[in-house]
Amino acid sequence: MDRTSPDLTRLMDAHLALIATDVERWLALFTEDAVVEFPYASSLGGPARMEGIAAIRAWFAPITKHFQGLTFTNARRYPGVDATTGWLEVHGAATLQPGNIPYEQDYVMRLQVRDGRIVHYREYWNPLAAPRGTFESFTREQA
Asked: Which stretches are annotated as coiled coil (predicted)?
């Protein structure tokens, strides 16, 4: 039996459609006090946790510039133990800029929703699949 709420399913689909193409519309999916976590990002010089829309915006604003053509395929959705939490497994492909570097990554994403918006997002990915220096350059750019 699928326990995933219609809000969660809608938010999962919207998240995949917007994260790499329209940061402002993607941010509108989140609560003001949302938390975004990348448990492995610190190994590449990126933040492991961002709290609040301002912090999330500061990190993601340049993403569409760097991750050009990011597309997700093979999306598989898994309900959590309640209707407010769900998991996604997806394959992502993009061209990293600068340098036109091909990028392929398998992701596991966890979304938790409250009142029809994302309150907590955690994304797991393989840091070895990202070219060395990728996230350090994003961090320098935001400083």
From this structure: none
